[in-house]
Specification:
Elements (H helix, E strand, L loop, with lengths): L1 H26 L6 H4 L1 H5 L19 H7 L3 H8 L1 H33 L32 H36 L8 E5 L9 H12 L4 E8 L2 H22 L6 E3 L9 E3 H23 L5 E9 L2 H9 L10 E4 L15 H21 L1 H10 L2 H7 L4 H4 L2 H20 L2 H10 L6 H26 L3 H8 L5 H11 L1 H21 L1 H10 L17 H18 L6 H22 L12 H25 L3 H7 L1 H16 L1 H5 L3 H11 L5 H11 L25 H4 L1
Antiparallel strand pairs: 1-5, 1-6, 2-5, 3-4
Helix pairs in contact: 1-16, 1-21, 4-24, 5-6, 6-7, 6-23, 6-24, 7-25, 7-27, 9-10, 13-16, 13-18, 16-21, 17-18, 18-23, 20-25, 21-23, 21-24, 23-24, 23-25, 25-26, 25-27
């Protein structure tokens, strides 16, 4: 019955994948959908909308597969940056690991499991009525010498994974250094962020910064930009931008009404010309912006933080990595992010608000974990028909229908869990945004870690242990019983996680290609939107959503490859789909908004090490239950060696991802000595980190404005 339900789930998801691929091949060629399926090509001018009808647009074609496959890694690097390369290396790494694991699991371990008689003999003439346990290690007889095959498989895969982890860490470290050497001079390479600036009576923050760095860094100090609190100003500018956009559309679209009544709800009163009304309102908003900018420019609005620039990368690194003051709470420094990566709302919060926010985030994450157990309980109830009949006795007659019961137990639980998990990444990103990070990339990395460990705890451990949160915690408070508990619980959930891989993996990856939510939003909002076809923002890949998903499937593959190797073919299909689909998305859809230089890879490495250690713990427990105590004893060196290997990698490679070496910085500085453009670049540093809210732009078209325009409409055309 379990196998039958699983096959039903596989059939449904396979049909959905084929449907999504076919629809994508057709919809991506429709001019009205270019902003959804090829926004990057449209923004770069590589794709043009034409109104001529072509029959080819209505036929599904596989040409996009070839175009997604062709670009080399170097082309992907130049096109989407090192972060995109790291993401694709994660998928390639997973393909390599599970190709070997799949060969061992399907062609070696699976026949061994099937020929066991611990549970029952497999009826190959009626596979759909077999329990999935007969395909797992549970069916191998206790004390059987065949278990040494599983033992050997654990050692082989562990050694292979560690070898690949070392190779990938080394490869990406070299890529990161090479990427740095090949880069043009960037503001963040010469700039540090200084916080907790002490200010003496009668001096401003700017005076304190200038005097301090001229005294202690006289040969390298170049200039600085003081950060100001501009949260109110940003709100004013956003309101003005919305009104400006509305005015532009009113002027360019003749079909729009040009008049409205100035009374209640626009139904009563005298008629008013909307164009004149909006222009006057824009002039008032401009005046408010000027007044607010004047107030922000006062010393009282200084945030006691500044971006300090130096005339060399090495000088900036010295200031960033050394304690500048005897009092370590003053003159706190860190490397500055890219100018467009700065999270400006960070500076509008007081120290106390930031400190409280960190505590609030911790409490909120704990509460979210507890609340998320509710859908976990629902999911576990759906996988158990007898439990479902107890909860809902009036559905007993419906549940006796074979197809209905197969859909409910095989497909519906994973679908419900998928829908609930959709809300986790944006929540975690919001939590990270109020936690006190100065850049959007740091927020993304923090959210990535939060989503990963939330998924591991709530999707893996909560489903495996199937108890209250207190029960789950109590298990981990007794480390001696962890292997035995996991050895019993993990194999029992094999069918659920296979269905989870099919539903969440196959379907979500196909949905990533199909972009259903952006498509629906585009179709719904297009008749009412006030944006032209050229006014859209090219999206970036939400790494905090997709990296944890790929890593979690890697954890499932690691833990189940020797327990229930039937999961491996489904994982390989997922990673193959992910490889071609994400390459297509990087080429046609996504454009990077920031570049971390590959700093997501340490997260990948740590997750894989955790997966290996978890696999070893389960192996110890399973061999103990199977009365093969010698194998359990011989497994013990594996987690110890894995953790030692991780410590070596941490010492060998992690510093490269934290900061560049003095050797690299000095070498790069020497290359720039004869660069004629460096003088112009150093001049630009004076305004590189100016808050966008303080930049001059202009909304109204009135040339006789009493004061010089603070804003220029060019900002809205970019």
């Amino acid at each position: 019955m379990i196998v039958s339900a699983l096959l039903t789930s596989v059939g449904i998801n396979l049909g959905l994948c084929i449907l999504f691929f076919t629809l994508y091949s057709i919809l991506r060629k429709q001019p009205s959908n270019f902003g959804v399926y090829v926004p990057r090509l449209l923004a770069d001018g590589k794709s043009k909308k034409t109104s001529h009808f072509h029959l080819e647009r209505l036929l599904p074609t596989p040409g996009w597969l070839r175009r997604a496959w062709q670009p080399s890694e170097e082309e992907l690097l130049s096109y989407s940056g090192l972060d995109a390369v790291v993401f694709m290396r994660l998928i390639i790494f997973s393909l390599r690991v599970f190709s070997l694991a799949g060969i061992i699991g399907v062609f070696v371990l699976l026949p061994v499991n099937c020929t066991g008689t611990q549970l029952q003999q497999v009826d190959f003439s009626n596979l759909t009525n077999n329990s999935l346990d007969v395909f797992s290690i549970s069916n191998v007889n206790n004390g059987s010498k065949r278990l040494w095959i599983h033992f050997s498989a654990v050692y082989i895969v562990s050694i292979f994974v560690c070898y690949l982890l070392y190779s990938e860490y080394k490869y990406i470290s070299a890529k990161r250094v090479a990427y740095f050497y090949s880069s043009e001079p960037q503001p963040q390479q010469f700039t540090v962020l200084v916080r907790s600036i002490p200010v003496s009576v009668g001096n401003s923050v700017s005076d304190s910064v200038e005097s301090f760095f001229k005294e202690y860094h006289p040969s390298t100090y170049l200039c600085h930009v003081v950060v100001r609190r501009t949260n109110k100003l940003r709100d004013l500018i956003n309101d003005a931008k919305k009104l400006y956009t509305r005015l532009i559309h009113l002027q360019t679209e003749p079909s729009r009404p040009k008049f409205k009544r100035d009374g209640c709800w626009g139904l009563f009163g005298r008629k008013v010309d909307l164009v004149d009304h909006y222009e006057k309102k824009l002039e008032d908003m401009e005046e408010n912006v000027r007044l607010e900018q004047s107030e922000v420019s006062l010393a009282g609005e200084e945030a006691r933080a500044a971006f300090v620039s130096f005339n060399s990368r090495y000088g900036a690194a010295i200031a960033s990595n050394m304690q500048l003051s005897i009092n370590p709470t003053y003159w706190v420094t860190e490397q500055a992010p890219e100018p467009h990566d700065v999270y400006w709302p960070f500076f509008s919060k007081s120290f106390m608000r930031k400190w409280i926010s960190k505590i609030v985030v911790i409490v909120a994450c704990v509460l979210l974990t507890v609340v998320f157990l509710i859908p976990i309980v629902i999911v576990q109830g759906l996988t158990n028909l007898s439990q479902l009949e107890i909860w809902f006795p009036f559905l007993k007659s419906i549940l006796t229908i074979t197809f209905v019961s197969q859909v409910i137990t095989g497909y519906l639980p994973s679908l419900i869990l998928l829908l609930f998990l959709k809300i986790v990444p944006p929540i975690m990103k919001f939590f990270s945004s109020i936690q006190g990070y100065i850049s959007n990339s740091e927020i993304e990395k923090s959210a990535c870690n939060k989503v990963l460990w939330f998924t591991i705890w709530n999707v893996f451990f909560a489903n495996v242990l199937s108890g209250s949160i207190l029960n789950q915690i109590s298990i981990f408070l007794d480390p001696k019983n962890i292997p035995s508990k996991l050895a019993v619980a993990v194999p029992a959930q094999a069918s659920f996680f296979i269905a989870y891989v099919v539903t969440t993996g196959w379907t979500s990856t196909s949905l990533e290609l199909f972009r259903m939510i952006p498509l629906i939003c585009s179709l719904i909002t297009k008749p009412f939107t006030e944006r032209t076809d050229d006014e859209f923002e090219v999206p970036s890949l939400p790494y905090h959503r997709d990296i944890p998903r790929v890593l979690f499937f890697g954890l499932l593959g690691m833990t189940y490859f020797f327990l229930a190797p039937l999961i491996l073919p489904f994982l390989l299909v997922y990673f193959c789909l992910g490889y071609i689909i994400y390459r297509n998305q990087f080429i046609n859809v996504y454009a990077p908004k920031f570049e971390t230089g590959g700093k997501f890879w340490p997260i990948v490495h740590n997750s894989m090490i955790f997966s290996l250690v978890l696999m070893h713990a389960i192996a110890v427990g399973i061999f103990t239950l199977k009365k093969l105590s010698l194998a359990s004893t011989l497994i013990f060196p594996l987690p110890v060696l894995t953790l030692l290997f991780n410590e070596y990698c941490r010492k060998r490679f992690l510093p490269i991802f934290i900061a560049y070496s003095a050797e690299s910085l000095i070498k790069k500085d020497r290359e720039d000595y004869n660069n004629a453009t460096m003088a112009e670049f150093f001049d630009s540093l004076a305004t590189a980190y100016q808050d966008p809210a303080l930049l001059p732009i202009k909304y109204s078209a009135n040339p006789d404005s009493r004061s010089s325009p603070l804003l220029s409409s060019a900002e809205f055309e970019t």
